[in-house]
């Protein structure tokens, strides 16, 4: 069974925790999740497709730098590819 990660594999964006403050100033815990998407990319250097969990900013990073550069950086820091 695959469990979706709660962080962006490209940018490393993770959920941020804080508190909601009501009009009466009562504070309740909440969290802000990054906008994560499951995307498949064809990586010519590997000769196969990879499935990544990326945020919207991560998708823009891949569009700007190219998938080969991003995958090389991910492999250099030890990130797993599926």
From TrEMBL:
- What Gene3D superfamilies does the record point to? Ribosomal protein L28/L24
Question: Source organism's superkingdom?
Answer: Bacteria
Single Gene Ontology BP term?
A: translation
Q: Which InterPro entries match?
A: Ribosomal_bL28, Ribosomal_bL28/bL31-like_sf, Ribosomal_bL28_bact-type, Ribosomal_bL28_sf
Any transmembrane segments, and where? none
Q: Which GO terms describe its cellular component?
A: ribonucleoprotein complex; ribosome
Q: Which Pfam families match?
A: Ribosomal_L28
What keywords is this UniProt entry annotated with? Ribonucleoprotein, Ribosomal protein
Q: Which PANTHER family match?
A: 39S RIBOSOMAL PROTEIN L28, MITOCHONDRIAL, LARGE RIBOSOMAL SUBUNIT PROTEIN BL28M
- Protein's name in the database: Large ribosomal subunit protein bL28
State the species of origin.
Actinomyces johnsonii F0542
């Amino acid at each position: 069974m695959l469990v979706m990660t709660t962080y962006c594999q490209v940018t490393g964006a993770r959920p941020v925790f804080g508190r909601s403050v009501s009009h009466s100033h009562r504070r309740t815990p909440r969290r802000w999740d990054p906008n994560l998407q499951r995307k498949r990319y064809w990586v010519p250097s590997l000769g196969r497709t990879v499935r990544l969990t990326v945020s919207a900013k991560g998708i823009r990073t891949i569009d700007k730098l190219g998938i080969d550069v991003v995958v090389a950086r991910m492999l250099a820091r030890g990130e797993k590819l599926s």
